[in-house]
Amino acid sequence: MGTPTANASSEAGAAATAGPLVTVRRATFGYAGRPVVRADDLRLYAGRCLGVFGPNGAGKTTLVRGLTGLLPPLAGTVTRAARTVVAPVPAEGSGGRDGLRFGYLPQYRGMDPAWPMSGFDAAALAASARGRLG
């Protein structure tokens, strides 16, 4: 299994009255029953950023797909805004139908030459939108 590093903002900085939007406990994510990445203990809070770093093939995308509800856990639990998904889950997975919304832009190999954007530009766009959206 891969070992990406997830770096979330400190829990101490989260609002005292707001609980985590996503809590992961001993969850394993993968495909066709084959584990790819494990997240032992992770909490995501509103207004916080999460950076996931690791080499190619470490399971970064698989982890993000699991956090967003696009990929159900093979084992463990993922609690999304008071809805717990315990492995194994029904074939349709959680699919984000719990009212929680995530922005997820998967990586593609090709670039659209009509709209070139660097990684810095994408991060700046997200930072400027954050002030207007939340």
What does this structure look like?
There is one protein chain. The protein has helices spanning 60-68, 119-133; strands at 5-8, 22-31, 34-44, 50-53, 75-80, 83-86. The protein is α+β, with helices and mostly antiparallel strands. The strands form 2 sheets. It has a 4-stranded antiparallel β-sheet, with helices on one face. The chain has a two-stranded antiparallel sheet with strand order 1-4. A hairpin with a 2-residue loop joins strand 2 (22-31) and strand 3 (34-44). The longest helix is centred in the last third of the chain and has 15 residues, at 119-133. The protein starts with a strand and ends with a helix. Mean pLDDT is 74; it is low at 7-17 and 90-96.
Labels describing this entry:
single chain, 134 residues, alpha+beta, four-stranded antiparallel β-sheet, two-stranded antiparallel ribbon, 2 helices, globular
